[in-house]
Amino acid sequence: MFGLPFDGSGRFYRGNIHCHSTNSDGRLSPAEVIARYRAEGYDFLALTDHFIERYDYPVSDTTEFRTDGFTTLFGAELHAPALDNGQNWHIVAVGLPLDFPPTGDQESGPELAARAIAAGAFVGIAHPAWYGVKMRDVEAIEDAHAIEIFNTGHQADADRGDGWYMADLMTTEGRRILGYAADDAHFNGRPDHFGGWVMVQAGEPTPEALLEALKDGQFYSSQGPTIEHVGIDGDQVVVRCSPASSIHAAGRPPLNRFVHAEPGETVTEARFPIVAFAGESCRITVVDERGRRAWTNPFWLDAWGPGIG
Question: What is this structure's pTM?
Answer without folding.
Answer: 0.95
